[in-house]
Design brief:
The complex is a heterodimer of chains A (386) and B (291).
Chain A (H helix, E strand, L loop, with lengths): L1 H17 L5 E7 L6 H20 L8 E7 L4 H13 L5 E4 L3 H14 L3 E3 L16 E3 L4 H14 L4 E5 L4 H17 L4 E6 L12 H6 L4 E4 L3 H11 L4 H4 L1 E4 L6 H7 L7 E5 L10 H13 L7 H19 L4 H8 L3 E4 L2 E4 L11 E7 L8 E2 L3 E3 L3
Parallel strand pairs in A: 1-2, 1-3, 3-4, 4-5, 6-7, 6-8, 8-9, 9-10
Antiparallel strand pairs in A: 10-13, 11-12, 13-14, 13-15
Chain B lengths: L2 H32 L6 H18 L4 H22 L9 H23 L15 E3 L4 E3 H23 L1 H11 L1 H6 L4 H23 L10 H15 L4 H21 L7 H12 L12
Antiparallel strand pairs in B: 1-2
Helix pairs in contact in B: 1-5, 1-8, 1-9, 1-10, 2-3, 2-4, 2-8, 2-9, 3-8, 5-6, 9-10, 9-11
The chains are: A alpha/beta (386), B mainly alpha (291).
Chain lengths: 386, 291
């Protein structure tokens, strides 16, 4: 009896020594329910993979990492209140995540008020790193100006003359439209936008839009319809032979394997799009190992691209805290400025002024492969902002 | 607007209306008899779509077997919900019923996440309906033409059952005076259970028939339920032909509204509903409540 009590005491002491310091708490929000969960869940998996790997190597600054994970429901007000709770109740040291641009803006607002660093790992709206930039907000995702610039470049290369423009009517769509319009005169001075339509976020029925685009006589479409919006558009427009007549140049990562693998044979011709990461294509030697670990965690060889974004957010957090030798918001924010790290998609640097990482995206046509049931991006060109 | 464009938009508006009518008809039936505003109707629609995915993709069954399976599955789910839970709430205040159906939405959305995960799915068109038909000056998608036939068929079938059969007479009587009906020896709780089951099966059919046209994702129920309510309210709560008319009004207003006033597309259906509510608070074909 005495002996076991002693053992227990030793055990408690031992544990006490290992956890002499409080863990570093990383708060993270992704949509885990509702329409955004399609991407939020794999992003969270990438986040967890990074936390597991760091903890296996001893954590950050010798302290264990505790990941406090919440659902943002892709709703700006829910995200705002959840993030406040993470900061006041759970006392997190930093907050990562978000998916929708509207959510990103509301999280950035909380970060400003509460003086806690927020790294936007997916939201793209340019406002976060321009008009609404503040000391504590950083972005490791691409932004709508970079995406718009690449789309304009591709419109020029494909010699589009009459363009139909489709964007979703919310922060991301409106900002992407602005980004494209800014860059279009540079790359495609002769191109004319003959029709602009803006379905609402979450739209599933495109009946009111398809006849208009069909009869506008465009030779190309610039589109920001992401994920389910694109799938619904394809299902409704493809029977009419729509994709035989136009080049569809799209942002919103519909070149990712998530979309190609789901649509399989229904994935249309003439689509040129983007993705942050491809499980079958690397631009950095470290990608292979990252992808293998992710494949093991998710139990599939064909891993989703969103995981890389969740992963990179945690990696930046760790690097900044190690550099600052502190977890205080002001120190971490200062460390993030100009910080360069290696990631599965190559070396990235966060600009000291704009707080924007120079992350690129793979762009290319989605083509059929003889031995595959789904399309693949080939050739995949990595377009990185200067 | 050229004649071709007008025809094309008119057709697409009609197709939109029929898509919506198929889904809204069940909601309307349930409200007409049970006086329950079923918030879970959108969730039943989503389950219908997911079930057709599982049956066709995972089990390899033909599409229309999937549609039947959706109707059956939703019928069974609805019957269980009605017999175990909902039946205790008849005659209670509407707020209780609203909260209850909302709870069903939350429970079922978690259940859907457990069964199907959060991946995005798509269902192929049934063979022979995935192409387009050319009428010379316009090209129309076959599947939407098919829905334009199914919509009125469902309307006529519902009308026949409710207006022309003995069972329908009992159902109509239940909407008027359930105590009297019970006094006459009719098993009223069974009528309620049957109507809730049939209405929910219609939601399942609506979801199953929508599945080839849309991406299947969690949350696909959210916009649908709002639009169904708009249609049912415009037409007159509980009135079959009212919701048919409501669906047509909705379809054309959204279609032509988006063409002529694209910046107003989100508000137009609500404006339509407001106008109807101001002029005829009981809906286009509804009757003012008495007593």
């Amino acid at each position: 009896m005495k002996y076991s009590a002693m053992l227990a005491a030793v055990g408690v002491l031992g544990a006490g020594a290992a956890f002499a310091e409080e863990p570093i708490k990383i708060g993270v929000l992704y949509p885990l329910t509702g329409g955004g969960a399609v991407y939020g869940v794999p992003a969270m998996a990438g986040h967890q993979l990074a936390v597991e790997e760091l903890n296996a190597k001893g954590g950050i600054l010798g302290r264990k990492i505790e990941s406090v994970e919440r659902d943002d429901k892709m709703n700006p007000s829910a995200a705002s209140s959840t993030m406040k709770e993470l900061i006041t109740k759970d006392k997190v040291d930093i907050v990562l995540g978000g998916l929708s641009s509207a959510v990103g803006l509301s999280m950035s607002e909380v970060s400003k008020q509460e003086k806690v660093v927020y790294i936007s790992t997916i939201p793209k709206t340019i406002q976060m790193t321009t008009d609404k930039l503040h000391k504590y907000v950083f972005r490791t995702a691409a932004n709508t100006d970079q995406e718009g610039d690449a789309m304009a470049l591709l419109a020029g290369r494909n010699k589009l003359a009459k363009i139909c423009h489709l964007e979703l009517d919310y922060a991301y769509g409106n900002d992407l439209e602005a980004g494209i319009l800014k860059a279009l005169p540079k790359y495609a001075p002769d191109a004319k936008i003959v029709l602009t339509l803006k379905p609402k976020l979450g739209a599933t029925d495109f009946n009111p839009f398809i006849p208009q685009v069909m009869s506008a006589g465009c030779d190309g479409v610039l589109s920001g319809l992401w994920g389910p919006h694109f799938v619904s558009w394809v299902k409704q427009a493809a029977p009419l032979g729509f994709f035989n007549k136009v080049k569809w140049i799209s942002g919103g990562e519909i070149g990712s394997h998530e979309i190609a693998g789901e649509l399989k044979g229904d994935y249309p011709d003439n689509v040129i799009s983007n993705t942050y990461e491809l499980w079958y294509h690397a631009n950095d030697p470290s990608h292979k190992e990252f992808q293998a670990r992710l494949a093991k965690k998710l139990n599939t060889q064909e891993t989703p691209q969103w995981a890389a974004l969740g992963y990179i957010g945690v990696m930046y957090t760790a690097a900044a805290m190690e550099k600052a030798k502190s977890t205080k918001a002001d120190d971490v924010a200062a460390a993030l400025e100009g910080l360069t790290i290696g990631t599965p998609v190559g070396k990235l640097t966060i600009d000291a002024k704009s707080h924007q990482a120079n992350i690129g995206q793979f762009w290319g046509p989605m083509v059929k492969k003889p031995d595959r049931a789904y399309r693949m991006m080939d050739p995949a060109e990595y377009i990185q902002p200067k | 607007m050229t004649l071709t464009m007008f025809t094309l938009n008119a057709f697409y508006g009609l197709a939109l209306a029929m898509n919506m009518f198929i889904i809204a008809s069940g909601l309307n039936l349930i409200f007409g008899v049970l006086r329950v505003i079923n918030f879970a109707h959108g969730m039943f629609y989503m389950f219908g779509a997911y079930i057709v995915f599982t049956v066709t993709k995972s089990w390899g069954a033909p599409f229309f077997v999937g549609v039947l399976a959706s109707a059956l599955a939703l019928g069974v789910i609805a019957l269980v919900i009605e017999r175990l839970l909902l039946k205790h709430l008849y005659g209670r205040e509407h707020l209780m019923q609203l909260l209850f159906t909302f709870a069903i939405v939350l429970l079922m959305s978690d259940a859907a996440k457990m069964i199907w995960g959060t991946d995005q799915y798509s269902v192929g068109y049934p063979p022979g309906l995935g192409g387009a038909v050319s009428l010379g000056f316009v090209v129309l998608p076959q599947y939407q033409l098919f829905l334009c036939i199914v919509g009125p068929l469902i309307a006529v079938a519902l009308w026949f059952v409710v207006d022309r059969t003995r069972w329908g007479r009992v159902v109509r009587a239940a909407t008027q005076d359930r105590e009297m009906l019970a006094a006459l020896g009719v098993n009223v709780p069974m009528v309620y259970a049957a109507v809730f089951t049939a209405g929910s099966a219609l939601a399942g059919i609506g979801g199953a028939l929508a599945a080839p046209r849309v991406a299947l994702v969690p949350g696909m129920d959210a916009t649908i339920i709002n639009e169904c309510f708009i249609i049912v309210i415009i037409g007159g709560l509980g009135n079959l032909w009212g919701s048919f008319l409501g669906a047509l009004a909705f379809g054309f207003v959204v279609q032509f509204g988006t063409v002529w006033a694209p910046n107003w597309q989100d508000v137009l259906p609500y404006v339509l509903m407001l106008v109807v509510l101001i002029i005829r608070p009981w809906g286009l074909l509804g009757r003012p409540e008495v007593g």
